[in-house]
Amino acid sequence: REALAMDPQQRLLLEVVYESLDRAGLQLKRLQGSSTGVYCGAMNYDYSQLLLSDQDSVPPFMISGGAPSMLSTRISYYFDWKGPSLVLDTACSSSLIALHLAVQALQKGDCSMAVAAGSSLILSVDGYVSSSQANMMSPSGRSHMWDEAADGYARGEGVAAVILKRLSDAVRDGDQIDAVIRATGVNCDGRTKSLTMPNGLAQGELISSTYAAAGLDPLNPADRCQFFEAHGTGTQFGDT
Known about the structure:
Layout lengths: L7 H16 L4 H4 L4 E7 L3 H7 L9 H5 L3 H10 L5 E4 L5 H15 L4 E8 L5 H8 L24 E7 L2 H6 L27 H14 L27
Parallel strand pairs: 1-2, 1-3
Antiparallel strand pairs: 3-4
């Protein structure tokens, strides 16, 4: 009965986190009871809205199955982890902010290991309708980033998770290390011409400060970024 009320995002996050742990070569029994933290970014909660659409058939486990906070709590509960467990919604940046908070928690000693995850499932047309009303959706279903033909973006689904440890701990434990995070950063656009319009200056300041935190100089050819993923919405205002 409880599984029937579970948001599919909970189910997929459990599966993906398990796969991530397996990929990292970590044994579940050794992690049980540890101070592992879970930081999950999410902004779509279509399933709970669908369950509430018919109030006569709301399942008894609706609260634990549909509440946004349970996306991370379900993971901590299943694996018996005692570290911080939280879900955050910062719209499109949710999973990256989750990663940022997980890194900070490790640096502060709030947890011994952390899972940074993100999920987005589209189970209702409501998001399409509201985005279309705001002229955010592309009529063609394709995003033309930085193009004169930019007329909106296309929505997508996905669930992902990464396992994070302090580098010294990972080396000590003989873990497989796929990448090293030298620095993360976060800020906000502040006041712009409208609530959803980006601020290029603020974003530039964030990039510069994060480079500095990582000890990198963008003017030094040896320190230049080899791969840069931009958040291009494919809208006339969003790409400015």
